[in-house]
Specification:
This protein has helices spanning 60-70, 86-89, 92-98, 108-117, 187-199, 203-213, 233-244, 261-275, 290-297, 316-328, 347-355, 374-392, and strands at 8-10, 13-15, 18-20, 25-26, 30-31, 36-38, 41-44, 49-52, 78-80, 103-106, 125-127, 133-135, 140-145, 155-159, 164-166, 220-221, 248-255, 279-284, 300-306, 309-310, 313-314, 334-341, 361-369. The protein folds into two domains: 8-244, Metallo-beta-lactamase, Chain A; 252-388, Flavodoxin domain (Rossmann fold), CATH 3.40.50.360. It is built from twelve helices and 23 strands.
Length: 393
């Protein structure tokens, strides 16, 4: 028989999800350098037992075994779904088949989203709304609608007796390390990277969600990815800043270079900015982990794109990077686009056009033919000084 570690995170509240130590990609988009976890929680009241969220495909039997080590899955009373994305909702059918009397509980939006992915036993669905309570006997589950974090149906569940908040993806981190936040010294960079990848495009909804929970007494935050926070302020503080779009005096440079011309330009602007006291983070898109780029987008005040022209448009990797910047909707206020070409330009204009919806002020752009001359690099320096000046104000 397999043995599992089942942390009791509070009295009769157990973490029964799974760690995915070797997964290296999420959504066919997001690199996972350190794996992830799919956290699921079993809450045992005096009369009834509830499971909050489930696990990714492939981990159903681990979830079943863990539940049966501390309870009896067949007698489960409620399955709560905070979020319909399959990394948490995948085992809904599996659990409802094993627990024939369990009711499936979520919001109306939740049911509608879950139906897109799963065949649900309609007679066992119980719809709840924000503010509703579910009594387990000595433990109450209170539901808080927190939509668009990052799907339309997202909700939080709060357990007032134990002061535990279950916010699903919100406050999450893709790492399989540790159980509690204090186990991981460098946790916040993981959480920041996750915020940039998943929540940042919905930052305004994040502000609303924080407003909804600001008066709750929270002792433990139990998200659906990564460690459980027994020090809630460790993640609450950064989330207040990130959702508000607070930026640092920092410029993020993402670039591609084929024959060093664009590289000379971005190096020149990096040196200029550093000399002016601006923090600089620079990523070559040909070899970088885009999760690192997402992390730096969270609080960079300026974004510099370096893009050579290939076959009449941006180098495909620069196009990908620029599109990603636009999609993640970072709070940066200023932009610069630099690039080079051999016989026909176009990359710089194309990059600017992609960035238009972000409402960033494009402080300067420069496109050179062939290698950047000394005069070209002087012009880059000038753009850098102007950018540094604007970033201070
Ligand atoms: Fe972790 Fe949006 O699912």
């Amino acid at each position: 028989m397999k043995t599992y570690n089942i942390p009791e995170i509070s009295n009769n509240v157990f973490s029964v999800g799974a760690k995915d130590l070797t997964r290296r990609m999420f959504d066919a988009l997001i690199p996972l350098p350190d794996g992830t976890s799919y956290n699921s929680y079993l809450v045992k009241g005096e009369q009834r037992t509830a499971l909050i969220d489930t696990v990714n495909p492939g981990f159903e039997e681990e979830l079943e075994a863990k539940i049966n080590m501390i309870s009896d899955l067949e007698k489960l009373d409620y399955l709560i779904m905070n979020h319909a994305e399959p990394d948490h909702s995948n085992a809904i059918r599996f659990i409802l088949e094993k627990a024939p009397n369990a009711l499936f509980i979520t919001t109306e939006k939740g049911v509608n989203m879950a139906r897109l992915y799963h065949e649900l036993p309609e007679a066992r669905i119980k719809i709840v709304a924000g503010g509703d309570n579910l009594d387990l006997g000595g433990k109450t589950l209170r539901f808080i609608e927190a939509p668009w974090l990052h799907w339309p149906e997202t909700m939080f569940t709060y357990l007032p007796e134990d002061k535990v908040l279950f916010p699903c993806d919100f406050f999450g981190a893709h790492t399989a390390q540790g159980i509690y936040d204090e186990d991981i010294e460098d946790l916040i960079p993981f959480a920041k990277r996750y915020y940039g990848e998943i929540i940042m495009p919905f930052g305004k909804m994040g502000v609303k969600a924080l407003e909804k929970i600001k008066n709750l007494d929270i002792k433990i935050i139990a998200p659906s990815h990564g460690p459980i926070y027994t020090n809630p302020n460790r993640i609450m503080g950064p989330y207040v800043k990130w959702t508000a779009g607070e930026t640092e005096n920092k410029a993020l440079i993402v670039y591609v270079s084929m024959w060093r011309s664009t590289l000379d330009m971005v190096r020149t602007i990096a040196e200029t900015l550093l000399k002016e006291g601006v923090d600089v983070k620079m990523y070559d898109l040909a070899i970088s982990d885009i999760g690192d780029v997402a992390r730096e987008l969270v609080d960079s005040r300026a974004i510099i794109i370096g893009a050579p022209t290939v076959l009449g448009g941006m180098h495909p990797l620069a196009l990908y990077g620029t599109y990603l910047v636009k999609a993640l909707n970072p709070p940066a206020k200023y932009g610069v686009v630099l690039g080079s070409f051999g016989w026909g330009g176009g990359a710089v204009k194309q990059a600017e056009e992609i960035l238009i919806p972000l409402k960033m002020e494009v402080v300067g752009n420069l496109q050179v033919r062939g290698r950047a001359s000394d005069e070209d690099l002087k012009n880059v320096e000038k753009i850098g000084r102007e950018l540094a000046q604007k970033m201070k104000t």
